[in-house]
């Protein structure tokens, strides 16, 4: 469900007006999450580790109001539910985009994820084969690299306020499984507080 934000009464209007005119209003950071419990849970239950930690991340984003804000035609709207538009690798070394709607139930969510991954892997054609709504996070995975920083290709004339999340290489260090995660967000809509809250909630769900 999409709700229009009243900019006359919104607590964030001053910050929105300040940052929305920046030539680069996105900012980001990279942090590590502990993957030990999530890795064990996925193995014990036969889950896809990727779809499991993606589900945890989307649950975390859904817990934080600011992750649901989007700028559309200069107005701000709030979405109650956040899915994913994730890149999926193809056998030819390229990739395609997906649309993975969120479901609170992991099994239902995973069905959609696996269907989308199969669709992209077995088809060729335009990158954007299916329309993608605004209530998503842009998601990429770079499983070969334990990165310590990351930037994104951006088309600045395009109105874009969708958060961008990148997962890195799962690795073991001193007996603990870890993974770098990068998050880039629009500063007119959220600050460091909200990204910090996201990582806290993400780790909470990974540890369940």
TrEMBL record:
SUPFAM superfamilies from the xrefs? CoA-dependent acyltransferases
Q: Which InterPro entries match?
A: CAT-like_dom_sf (IPR023213), Cmp_AcTrfase (IPR001707)
Q: Which SMART domains match?
A: CAT
Q: Which GO terms describe its molecular function?
A: chloramphenicol O-acetyltransferase activity
Pfam families (alphabetical): CAT
Record-given protein name: Chloramphenicol acetyltransferase
UniProt source species: Sediminicola luteus
């Amino acid at each position: 469900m999409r709700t229009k934000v009243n900019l006359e009464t919104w607590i964030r209007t001053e910050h929105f007006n300040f940052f929305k005119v920046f030539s680069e209003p996105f900012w980001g950071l990279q942090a590590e999450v502990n993957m030990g419990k999530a890795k064990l849970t996925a193995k014990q239950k036969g889950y896809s580790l990727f779809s499991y930690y993606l589900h945890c991340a989307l649950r975390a984003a859904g817990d934080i109001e600011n992750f649901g804000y989007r700028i559309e035609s200069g107005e701000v709207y709030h979405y109650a539910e956040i899915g994913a538009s994730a890149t999926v690798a193809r056998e030819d070394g390229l990739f395609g985009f997906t649309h993975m709607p969120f479901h609170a139930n992991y099994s239902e969510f995973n069905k959609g994820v696996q269907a989308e991954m199969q669709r992209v892997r077995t088809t060729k054609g335009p990158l954007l084969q299916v329309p993608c709504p605004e209530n998503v996070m842009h998601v990429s995975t770079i499983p070969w690299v334990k990165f310590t920083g990351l930037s994104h290709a951006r088309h600045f004339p395009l109105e874009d306020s969708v958060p961008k999340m990148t997962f890195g290489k799962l690795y073991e260090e001193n007996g603990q499984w870890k993974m770098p995660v990068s998050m880039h967000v629009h500063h007119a809509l959220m600050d460091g507080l909200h990204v910090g809250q996201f990582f806290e909630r993400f780790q909470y769900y990974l540890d369940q």
